[in-house]
Design brief:
By secondary structure, this protein is mainly beta. The protein has a single domain (3-83), classed as Nucleic acid-binding proteins (OB fold (Dihydrolipoamide Acetyltransferase, E2P), Beta Barrel). The chain is built from no helices and five strands. The chain has a five-stranded mixed β-barrel. Strand 2 (21-31) and strand 3 form a beta hairpin. It is flat and about 75 Å long. The mean pLDDT is 87.
Length: 106
């Protein structure tokens, strides 16, 4: 089969919580039909990652393939760039309790 006819997209991994599949967000732009200003749009694709090598924030190239499941029609061709995502998420950071300092001055 000819590989030149397959669709190729470049996107960023937004979820890698499942075993084999990852979710890749592909951003693209198109002019607004009335105002003619470029508007950013994005699509999310379920992508098959055989080796589980992709992590959150990675930039990957994906290629269209045969249907692998109900929602997966893409597979990872290569990892272009490893992403830098913080280990601690904002909800995991505990805020220190602020005691009322006005009671200490009396």
């Amino acid at each position: 089969m000819s590989y030149e006819r397959r669709k190729v997209r470049v996107g960023r991994v937004v979820s890698d919580k499942m075993d084999k599949p990852i979710v890749v967000s592909v951003e693209w732009s198109q002019p607004h039909r009335v105002y003619k200003k470029n508007v950013k749009r994005w699509n999310k694709f379920m992508v098959h990652d055989q080796e589980n090598s992709c992590n959150l924030g990675d930039t990957v190239r994906i290629v269209e393939t045969r249907p692998l499941s109900k929602t997966k029609r893409w597979k990872v061709a290569e990892i272009i760039q490893k992403g830098d995502v913080a280990e601690l998420q904002p909800e995991e950071i505990a805020t220190p309790s602020i005691e009322d300092s006005s009671n200490d001055s009396e």
